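Running this now, will post back.
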Amino acid sequence: MAALHRFHNRTGALVSLSNDNRTAQRNHPTQEFNNGVVLSSVPLTDEQVLEVKIDKKVNSWSGSIEIGVTTCDPDNLNFPISATGFRDGTWVMSGSSVLKDGHSMIEEYGCDLDQLSEGDVVGVMRSSNGELHFFVNGIDQGTAATDIPAGVYAVIDMYGKCAQVSIIESTDNRVSVAAPNSTPSEVAHQLANEFLAQLSSQIVNDLTRTTEALTLAGDALHSNERLTFHERCGSLVKLSNGRRTGERRRPLDEFNNGVVMTNRPLKDDELFEIRLDRLVDKWSGSIEVGITTHNPSAIDFPATMTNMRSGTIMMSGCGILTNGKGTRREYGQYNLDALAEGDRIGLIRKSNGSLHYFINGVDQGMASNTCPPTVWGVVDLYGMAVKVTILDRNDPNYHHMVNSRRPERQRVPRQFTDPFDEDNSADDEVERLCFHTRCGTHASVVNSGRTAHRPNALDDFNNGVVLTNRHVRPNEIFEVCIDKMVDKWAGSIEIGLTLHSPENLEFPSTMTNIRSGTWMMTGNGVMYNGTTVMDDYGQNLDRLKHDCILYVIGPVIDLVLKGRRQALFPAATRRLLMAAACCTSQRHGEFNDAIVMSNRSPER
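Update: finished.
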């Protein structure tokens, strides 16, 4: 019998080997989906099948294991991020397709590898006449390619859902390597017995896992235990307050892996309610809340719950997603992305199977009428959402907990006095508008705060954001003059207003990346929180030349360009705004890029 194969020591960037190099796993499988390529330590022997068992899968991604052969020597290989990235003599089975050097050869071949489960086995073999065969659970899928050169290495890609594989001892009884004296009927009988044995084993394993999960769920469902978060949670979550508070670690560095679930299934007509304790003004998107049939004791926690493809209903933004796909685009009166610290989000699975959400105690109506009977509550601390606490209406301190957080809703961007407040004195001395000294990494403020420029304008095209030193008052004009431009980049100056204070803003590469409280004119369009709201507005800023003057009147906002006033942003906002100008562009193009601008005192 041939010696058992091993994986080569050189692997993809995220691979760890164990079990004497017979087991490979992809590190951080719920956060990364590629860089999981491994090769056999030695070339394949003709007529010998190399088989690997899928040890572990995650639910975070699409796609799964890929397997094939390559003429590339692993000792000298610059490993690609996936097997389909190989070139120069590589054949790979991906899904139900066969690819050569990354290009499809056969669209429909054999079983779909993406549909395989943990415990399933895949194999690859080069025959003595140069044919390539793939095997799934011991069954030859047929000839996938011919004229395969001798001395090829096996390739396995732990891609997408596939997180861990192990090389196993290959069985000798296969159609392609059957004994010469075997009759077709004997081979068929043998193949059928192998298939039935594997199928029976898989059914037993599935039933065992299902029974264990149902037992746990049944016990928890009849429990009167107080709702808390389950001890198993996303990789970046920290639980406190008796597991009633969940918080995402490193919120300014990471935006996902913050999933938390209830410690037991929700009862019919039971309110699951949380309070939003902390937000950060950096990411797009915010808290997502919903239900799932997946038991937290057994689930492989995804990076975000909208990656789940079964048994899950989530409210995200102002829509409802079922198994990751939008089923209602507009639901209720609130957008979860616009909620503030102190706001409450609740849900009830009613006895008739309908799901209702509650925002600050107000029923938003039926979100779904097809809820399964056994579901856990789930919260995704995504994007801006950092910290939440479970509330209990039977708690004597409930009303205190609801009201005690309200002052914290006045977050940093709202720290200034409202210009419409009657107590705001019009006689106060007004500080002159200048650029704030805190600015983008490629920007510099000079001339006592009156001039901003990008010193290395021919090398860098973004990170040139500058904000005013104070908020813009009602009907006050913020005006800049373009002093200098370069003939290299596409795009040019962008100008607008933001709620974000320069003291607290994590400066983006361009202000159109900000997903909250920001209105910008870019080109001849207008964007609100990074989304275009007007496509054809006024003159095109990208076509302006030096010495052009732009100014904004806020917070009832108009744009005045070359002396002509144009309505720019909705006047309904009563929030204070910081004027923002952005010397930015996109790579490659023929239009000039504004690199120096001066803050001017407008002529009345």
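Residues 175-180, 406-428, 555-595, 600-604 have pLDDT under 50 and may be disordered. More later if anyone needs it.
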